[in-house]
Model the fold of this input.
Amino acid sequence: MHVQDLAALEGFKAEHSELENWEITDAYCGDLLSDVMGNAPSESVLVTIQAHKNTVAVASLAGIRALVICNNRSVPSDMLEAAKEEDISIFTTKDTQFEASCKIAKALGRLDAGTD
Amino acid sequence: MQEIPINTYNSPNVILELIYKLKIKDVMTTDLVTATKDTPLREIQYIMRERQVTGLPIVLGKRLIGIVSMDDIIQALDKGYIDEKAQDHMTRNLIVLEDDMPISFAISYFDRFSYHRFPVLNKHKELVGMITSRDITSTLLVEINREIEDLEKRTRTTGLSEEMSGEIHTYSILKHDFENAGYASTEIKKRLKSAGIAPHVIRRAAIASYELEMNLVVHSDGGELIAEYSPQTIQITARDSGPGISDVESAMTAGWTTASEWIRSLGFGAGMGLPNVKSVADDFAIESTLNGTTVVCVIALHPNQEET
Done:
């Protein structure tokens, strides 16, 4: 999938999204930035509630291309500025991390391994 | 006389790969000029001159039945039978190659036999092309050029990391300066990227520098992050002026933390920092007293290359 496909997911709002045709091949879910730093795959989207500037730094270093901020948390302006500078897209949603992850998994075609 | 000075036993690997990878059909001429068994030798002589070829395959439909070479024409002129038909004087005892064979076969055929060209048949025994040593050498030259270009590119990358060698960058890190946290690591990452270092190596350096940088922000009274580049390694040093780690052994244990609730709510202080740094480092050392802590982490820039 591509960054632009995230914008199309129900309830996802693009706060900043400019490199829309960048490919996203994987996703990671986490709020511990050390864990994200160490384990998130590159070219991925991060599902998190950490709505602050440092998340952008971690994303940039780990090669994460988009952030999905859950639970209706708002994105502070310095975070948005940092994201623009680092070419990282940010989406917000009312969804919980679980709900958001499900939608992304479906978009990534990862649900066929399940029991349904 | 047509010898191609490449052999199949002690040539460089790149060449060996090429001569086994390239098939005769990739190299041969498929724009064929042919004649039939009834074509007079004199006409064949004209065709040869016009098309500038030194041998003409004689075909029956798609089947190869002989070859008339320049030598055959010279003989015919000499002995006065130039107006006779091809079938009476063509060479019938032919050595042929198959289009699916690697060109190593063709090379050894040119070495072994004195022919200037070989007809090429497909698996249905139909004539599909002709191959000369010139076809082989020109294709090989193109391919070798390409390989050398790749090699040069790779050496240039190593060259870049050599250019970076000797550089030392020091970044001051202030206590609880979350505003600028990550700046030093991003700079280090950019430097490595511009030197063409492999992405997985950059990732390791990014993890180490970011964890060390965040440690300085979260735990220290302030300090510095130092990146030193050598041709083979990057050494990242985090040095602070206190307060020191009271229990280094525990600090190296995943999950052990002294971070406050506030720090942890930001997603830091999970007790994974130092263990993360150690896990990505090729060399790691930590020393701590009440006057400060120094962590040194070394990462090899070209881990897949043999040591020179």
Strands of chain A lie at 13-16, 26-29, 44-48, 66-69, 89-92. The mean pLDDT of chain A is 91.
